[in-house]
Design goal:
By secondary structure, the chain is of the alpha/beta class. The chain contains 31 helices and 31 strands. Strands 3-2-1-4-9-6-10-12 form an eight-stranded mixed sheet, sandwiched between helices. Strands 15-14-13-16-17-21-18 form a seven-stranded mixed sheet, sandwiched between helices. Strand 19 and strand 20 form a beta hairpin. Helix 1 runs antiparallel to helix 13 and helix 18 runs antiparallel to helix 21. The longest helix has 42 residues.
């Protein structure tokens, strides 16, 4: 048994542990500071004996760029442009380029030297995965004494590199010049998609005005670190390393032992040798930069795990060559050049580092608390999954599978794929042809999606990520609580369950209670299936989970049922989840009227917790299970279709349930995986919400069917709970999520709605008082089809002759608005709303401009996830500028396609809102909150947009009014 602990005491212990970790962190920071001071002192002493800056001017005739090339035919042209005399602002005879083709499968374009006459030669080196031999040859053949080595030819340069290098060469003996390196893009290239990277970069550079203004590269750059100062002054390499030919030759240039693809740590090793030679002057061009183009290189195209493995191999070779395990820069540089403001604004590799750090700490806390509350106190350390929610299963160390699948497939005479538990369930569905399927333990919907009939799922923490195509109802409840609602069960299961899959809590007493409750509602010729009854290792069947694979003691349900219900027919088959055998038990011969198990329940639970069914070996477990071949699934009874419901009606059957709880989710029917999920956030708007929902219903929306979309209404803790009963009949799919009171911002509510959405396309109306024009849903679906990264929005309007911040002060109120709406008969033609509205401030610049916000934001589910939804740090009433913030972040995401729905809109009803009814403007407070969160004032997104939609007369008449300000 697992130990029962006081969660509060365990959490206190964990908090003490966290405090100890923080203390250790502070000590390590102090230690690092002392270490850095020691390095600085050593550097100062070294510099007194080394070269110093003086005023003796030295000769500079020109610079030779030696550039490595491998399969970058498009990127190299941009690089060569950056190395051209015109771009660098020097004379034509002051620059030459030697291109080292390191055996490319895609040789440089044939007309390259014609396009770029400053290329003096192209040297092709065959049979060498590493470019170091070719680079050394290029240094030897360089015409000028000043040489710039670019080991990665995909780097762009700022336009002052050559002129600044010229000044440094004239001022210093033996200079070694570091041009700081950046990444093109707003995130680390290893974390971004490589699809159409070149096109994306080209478009962005064009929008920035590059190459006409080369310093605009800083506006589309990310710094590869978290600390500018530390990274600049403790740099361990440069991808534009400039020195003199004599310095390179004296050092022996690149070490040929670095023969890995991409040269491994060769560039780091040479850089370290050059800057730590006291005869050389180490200089950094702080106001310049080299900018890496995304070309899916040796490391950027890899997954984090693969990249770490490559770096690990590089370190092994580095130790073999140098005898050292550490790449360290202990020398401080001279700083030369102008420190540009554009360079100072470059974000670090994680733009929102503090947000990311806070999120990770919160996830860790959630995992630790979950462990404490469930009584798990073992020594295993939780791990975090990138891009997902904290999952207790991720805290477990992996257990090695035994590899039973091939032998089991041979023994059963089937292909290995046929043994997957999903394949087995699929086969059962096909065989018995159920009319009603029931599942306990929905999780992501991986098994629920197999159903082709009406389905019901129960899980207190489901998160649907699989496309479910059949009609389904989901209940976010524990199974005990679900069955306690007898009246609801009687309605849901009136025709009886044909196929039930029990895969909930992996403890036998829970499974037993689930079976007792499920059988009461089964048809006699139905089938019940249990998962996890035949694990392959003893460690996996422990009650307290320790490993990634876990079956618990579910296996006990098989001998228990055979012992106490011999009337049941139970067959166990070998089924697998990935490489792990977990097993399925298939139960037929059901008797919904049987009360034997229920009457014996207390004794049976003691039996489970005792030693009655304990096994000492897997062989003993297999003997007890009496394994059948997978072919027995072909013998299951096929459902006999009946024209009338089975005898499971409220008046004839009210079986007792085991356990107790309550659900806060309206159990409305949903057809999972519609095209679009619409999230509507509401707070205390009993008058306005029904009109909003009616405008979004299939009755009002044109060119869509009711099944095309679902609506999720999120009640953000209203004093009088929101109701959807008045319009429920207008929707095929509508749900209500009620959140507890206490949050004045709608951000959490909006995120909760997005999380609950089943469609691959998601739209959010963060203000439930906004009615929609009749083509909004169709235009949103059309717009999202144009691009995988589409960001679709509509202009906003206020009902009334002026914006409501003004009209309310002049007497405009709900009574006036009701009469206004009645006057245009908007329910017959929703486009008449344009006749009685005026553009909001955010949309006042015209149809063909990007508004500063939208109150109908549509994106793909994956895009919502990449943005992490609304930023819940916006805690002002109404969310402050949270809606503007997510619109800006979405539109400015690299690769995003902002789209405005032409001739569509949302129309704000007056309801005593935070801004429209405020006696004094709230904008100053909202601006201050935004600046605290983002570190800068809000600025309207400055990107180009596409337009989709269908023109209509009412909107076109409004368009003339909107176009004019945009043209002025």
């Amino acid at each position: 048994m697992s130990r029962q602990l006081d969660p509060n005491n365990e959490i206190d212990r964990l908090m003490e542990h966290i405090a100890a970790l923080e203390s250790e962190r502070d000590w390590m920071k102090a230690r690092d500071h002392r270490f850095q001071m020691l390095i600085d002192n050593i550097s100062d002493q070294l510099e007194t004996a080394s070269v110093r800056l003086d005023r003796v001017e030295r000769e500079f005739a020109g610079i030779s760029f030696v550039i490595a090339y491998y399969d970058i035919p498009r990127q190299i042209e941009r690089t060569l442009l950056c190395c051209s005399p015109a771009y660098q602002g020097v004379e034509n005879d002051e620059i030459e380029v030697i291109l080292i083709d390191n055996g490319s499968t895609q040789p440089p374009p044939e007309d390259l030297q014609e396009k770029f006459p400053h290329i003096s030669k192209i040297i092709r080196v065959e049979g060498r995965p590493s470019p170091v031999e070719g680079l050394n040859r290029g240094i030897e053949e360089a015409r000028f004494n000043t040489v710039a080595v670019m080991i990665d030819g995909a780097h762009l340069l700022s336009p002052g590199v050559v002129s600044n290098a010229r000044d440094v060469v004239r001022l210093f003996d033996n200079p070694v010049i570091n041009v700081p390196q950046y990444l093109l893009g707003s995130v680390a290239q290893s974390l971004s998609t490589g699809e159409q990277a070149f096109e994306r970069e080209t478009q962005t550079l064009k929008e920035l005005g590059w190459p006409k203004d080369g310093y605009r590269l800083f506006d589309y750059a990310t710094y590869p670190g978290e600390n500018y100062e530390k990274s600049f002054f403790s740099a361990i390499e440069s991808n534009c390393l400039i020195s003199t030919k004599s310095v390179f030759e004296a050092s022996g240039a690149f070490d040929l032992r670095f023969d890995e693809p991409g040269a491994g740590f060769a560039n780091l090793e040479l850089f370290s040798r050059l800057i730590h030679n006291l005869q050389n002057a180490y200089v950094i061009l702080l106001g310049e930069g080299s900018f890496h183009q995304d070309h899916r290189g040796v490391t950027t195209q890899r997954s984090p795990e693969e990249r770490e493995d490559i770096i690990r191999q590089y370190r092994v070779r580095f130790k073999e060559v140098t005898g050292s395990e550490t790449v360290l820069n202990t020398r401080s540089p001279f700083v030369f050049g102008v420190t540009r403001h554009s360079a100072q604004r470059v974000p670090t590799i994680s733009r929102e580092y503090r947000i990311a750090r806070t999120r990770i700490l919160r996830q860790l806390a959630n995992i630790y608390v979950a462990r404490a509350q469930s009584g798990l106190t073992d020594k295993y350390t939780p791990q975090l999954a990138v891009g997902g929610s904290p999952d207790e299963r991720l805290a477990r160390i992996p257990i090695k599978p035994l590899g039973l699948r091939p032998k089991t497939a041979d023994k059963n005479g089937v292909d290995q794929k046929a043994l997957g538990y999903v394949k087995c369930l699929q086969k059962i569905h096909k065989r018995i042809n159920p009319e009603l399927y029931f599942e306990i333990g929905v999780d992501t919907g991986a098994s629920l999606r197999l159903a082709k009939c009406d389905s019901i799922g129960v899980d207190p923490g489901y998160f649907i990520s699989n496309a479910i195509t059949a009609s389904c109802r989901l209940f976010r409840e524990e199974s005990d609580a679900f069955f306690e609602n007898r009246e609801r069960c009687a309605k849901l299961f009136a025709r009886g369950i044909d196929f039930a899959f029990i895969d909930g809590m992996h403890l036998a007493e829970y499974v037993l209670r689930d079976f007792i409750n499920v059988e009461k509602w089964m048809n006699e010729d139905g089938v019940v299936v249990f998962d996890d009854v035949l694990p392959e290792r003893l460690e996996v069947l422990e009650r307290e989970r320790r490993f990634n694979a876990w079956c618990g003691d579910v296996y006990k349900i098989v001998p228990l049922l055979r012992r106490h219900r011999p009337d049941l027919n139970i067959r166990v088959v070998e089924a697998f989840v990935g490489p792990y055998r977990k097993g399925l038990a298939v139960v037929t011969g059901l008797n919904p009227k049987s009360a034997i198990l229920e009457e014996k329940l207390p004794a049976l639970e003691k039996e489970i917790l005792g030693d009655t069914y304990t096994v000492e070996s897997i062989e003993q477990l297999e003997e007890m299970a009496n394994i059948s071949k997978i072919s027995v699934l072909n013998d299951l009874p096929r459902r006999k279709r009946e024209s009338q419901p089975a005898s499971h009606s409220p008046s004839t059957c009210e079986p007792p349930a085991i356990g107790a709880s309550e659900s806060g989710v309206d159990p409305s029917p949903i057809t999972p995986c519609p095209k679009l999920s619409l999230v509507v956030v509401a707070y205390d708007m009993a008058r306005e919400l029904p009109r909003t929902l009616l405008s979004l219903s299939a009755k009002m929306q044109r060119d869509v069917s009711p099944e095309d979309y679902e609506v999720i209404v999120v009640d953000n803790g209203s004093p009088e709970p929101v109701s959807i009963e008045a319009v429920k009949g207008e929707f095929a799919n509508i749900r209500l999520l009620r959140l507890p009171p206490g949050r004045q911002s709608p951000c959490h509510a909006a995120n909760a709605g997005v999380e609950a959405a089943l469609g691959p396309l998601i739209g959010v109306l963060i203000d439930g008082a906004r009615m929609a024009s009749p083509g909004l849903v169709r235009a949103a679906i059309d717009g999202l089809a144009l691009s995988p990264n589409a960001v679709v929005g509509a202009h906003g309007f206020h009902l009334g002759e002026d914006i409501q911040q003004v009209s309310v002060k002049n007497g405009y109120d709900q009574t006036t608005e009701d009469a206004l709406l009645e006057s245009v008969a908007w329910e017959r033609d929703g486009y008449r709303l344009f006749d009685i509205s005026t553009p909001s401030k955010s949309s006042g610049k015209g149809w063909f401009t990007l508004p500063s916000e939208t109150n109908s934001l549509f994106m793909r589910k994956t895009f919502w996830a990449s943005l992490e939804g609304y930023d819940e740090r916006f805690q002002s009433p109404g969310g402050g500028l949270a809606n503007l913030d997510i619109w800006k972040r979405a539109c400015e995401t690299p690769g995003a396609t902002p789209i405005i729905m032409l001739c569509e809109g949302t129309f704000h009803q007056v309801h005593g809102g935070v801004t429209t009814n405020a006696e004094q403007s709230t904008r100053a407070a909202f601006d201050a909150e935004y600046a605290r969160i983002r570190g800068a004032p809000y600025r309207r997104p400055d990107v180009e947009a596409l337009f989709v939609g269908r023109p209509n007369p009412a909107a076109l008449s409004k368009m003339g009014r909107l176009i004019k300000p945009a043209q002025e």
